[in-house]
Amino acid sequence: MVDMSVKIGQMVFKNPVLTASGTFGYGPEFEDFIDIGKLGGIIVKGTTLNPREGNPYPRMAETPAGMLNAVGLQNKGVDVFVSEIYPRIKHYDTNIIVNVSGSTIDEYVGVTEKIAGLDKIPAIELNISCPNVKEGGMAFGTSCESASKVIEAVRKVYHKTLIVKLSPNVTDIASIAKTAENCGADALSVINTLLGMAVNAKTRKPCLSTVTGGLSGPAIKPVALRMVWQVSKVVKIPVIGLGGIMNGTDAVEFMLAGATAVQIGTANFIDPAVSVSIAEEINEYCENNGFDSVSKLTGALTC
Amino acid sequence: MSKKRIEDLRIVRNHQLNEDYHVIDLQPAGKLPEIFPGQFAEILVENSQTTFLRRPISVHDVDTERNILSILIQIVGEGTAELVSLEEGDYMNLVYPLGKGFSTDDPGKVLLVGGGCGVAPLLYLARILSEKEYEVHTLIGVRKSEYLMQISEYEKYSTVHITTEDGSEGEKGFVVNHSVFSNLADFKRIYSCGPEIMMKAVAKRAEEAGVECEVSLENLMACGIGACLCCVQKTNNGHKCVCTEGPVFNSKELLW
To answer: What pLDDT is recorded for position B50?
Structure first.
């Protein structure tokens, strides 16, 4: 028997597989396909203080080994989450984490305060890396100064596990990671989508209404792995790796590079049952390679 | 609504209709779930370098007795070309049945209007409506007679009307130029699927005549199950996911 549990902040996860925000709805969308209780955790859709309609259609483009999205944080707002969505999902036998997004520091704090009181939400993931909103979002995550302001403000009002999701669209992700750790983050999600663009030569127009969008899928896996490796070397807090993980082997690679846990994102769109399969495949890898505990994979890369 | 599932279905027939279109009959190992007209499947494309996402494909017909689900595929890119290259005995991996289909609960005289690959969901719709004792008329519009497909299939369940842009068969012109549109108020409902410009024209005429109109949209999508929020359509009630709140919408809801 492999011990599949991992610890992050004050939390214990039954296995290291979480689903990434914006790729798993709130959970009910996947109930026909999997038992959500078999996941380490789910990170629900980015939640803002007020409802957001998101960006105009078209907001998705298929690209080689991946896709671009420019959804722009469409969500019903934190009050609807608390009153309507949370009651429907709080029975899940897994860790439910809310991705907190905003345009201003006050908005991040406002959302966090409303989530903090929910018993079955043991953590938030602070999204300072959304590339698809005009104000805030990624702007907070691309300089140490603005990142520290928002993380410190949220840390003051939030006493449970605080995960910060980092942007890859920076010159030196290690320095932002270090800043986040110093400001009180309990863990880091590495990475959000890479800023990209697609052009339709036939119509001579951009494929997305916003021109640019966030690239995800296997196309970004090497970049994500590199950043997980760089970040995990400079911080003591756990790193949650994501970016193009499609199967158990991909997940193991992220853990070897330094991740304590992983998130499954775009792969959920191709196979809605993949997250549970990945947890099983990681278990098999441990069994076949003599690891009695999955946490021993973390950083086991020999360079 | 049936529970959604991921399943490998065996290809029992791959029938090429013309240069661009194939009808593929699929059979699961067990029994097909209940499927409603207008619903669709997300089909996995294997062995394609450029195709990353599944392809959303309408349910073309369901033969419950023979346990066969048929899809109509138009070759538009590498993904669909790969799908139609599969042979009898091969398998396709489907996530299905997805979406909310057409209304089929208040019998009367109805008109189905399709153009291009948009005819795909209308065959199964015609079958179900005729079983429910609707008086079904189907109007199919194409550029020229060579593009007409499966007319005899639609004739099993409905009175078929045809328009061709060059006048090579049926009435000459676009679908909305057909004489059936001069008595639109006789119909209880119009169902339409095809190019957006055609559906808009049909919906406009239906609204002018005070007839309810349902259209089936084909927005680009990733997941097909309401998770990614990529396929949204602007409606009078905000952005709605075409994959879960559609693909069929009452035309009056749409801001298009």
So the answer is: 87
- Picking from B55, B223, B240, B241 by the largest number of A CB atoms within 10 A of its own CB, the best residue to mutate is B223
Pairwise CB contact (< 8 Å): A57 & B233: yes
The Cα–Cα gap between B39 and B41 comes to 7
Please tell me if residue A290 touches chain B, with a CB cutoff of 8 Å. Answer: no
Q: Does A23 touch chain B (CB under 8 A)?
A: yes
A30 touches chain B (CB under 8 A): yes
What value does the mean pLDDT of chain B take?
96
Q: Which of A30, A59, A66 sits opposite B230 (nearest CB)?
A: A59
- Residues 65..84 of A with a Cβ closer than 8 Å to B: which? 65-67, 69, 71, 74
- Across the interface, whether the CB atoms of B53 and A62 are under 8 A apart is answered yes
Q: How many CB atoms lie within 10 A of CB B6?
A: 17
Judge contact between A265 and A23, C-beta under 8 A: yes
Q: B141-167: per-residue pLDDT in tens?
A: 999 999 999 999 999 999 999 999 999
Predicted pLDDT at A235? 98
A26 to chain B, any CB pair closer than 8 A? The answer is no
Whole-model pTM? Answer: 0.96
CATH of the domain at A42: 3.20.20.70
Task: Print the domain residue range for A168.
Answer: 6-54+73-194+216-297
- Residue B31 touches partner A, C-beta closer than 8 Å: no
Give how far Cα A80 sits from Cα of A85, A93, A133, A201, B160, Å: 7, 22, 21, 41, 48
Residues 6+ apart with CB under 8 A from B56: B40, B41, B42, B43, B98, B218, B221, B224, B243
User: Does the distance separating the beta carbons of A71 and B228 come in below 8 Å?
Assistant: yes
Instruction: Indicate whether A181 belongs to any domain.
Output: yes
Please give the Cα distance from B221 to A62 (Å, whole number). 9
Q: How many domains does chain A have?
A: 1
Interatomic CA distance for residues A134 and A139, integer angstroms: 9
Token pair in block for residue B229: 């929020």
| Catalytic machinery residues of A | 130
Domains of chain B, CATH where assigned: 5-98 (2.40.30.10), 109-216 (3.40.50.80)
- As a whole number, mean pLDDT of residues A182-200 equals 98
Instruction: Among B3, B51, B227, select the one facing A23 at the smallest CB separation.
Output: B227
Reported as a single tens digit per residue, the pLDDT across B205-245 is 999 999 999 999 999 999 999 999 999 999 999 999 999 99
Query: Does residue A59 sit within a domain?
Result: no
Backbone angles phi, psi at B181, to 5 degrees: -75, -15
Q: How many C-beta neighbours within 10 Å does residue A108 have?
A: 28
ipTM score of the complex? 0.95
Give the integer Cα–Cα distance in Å for A87 and A139. Answer: 33
Q: Does residue A49 sit within a domain?
A: yes
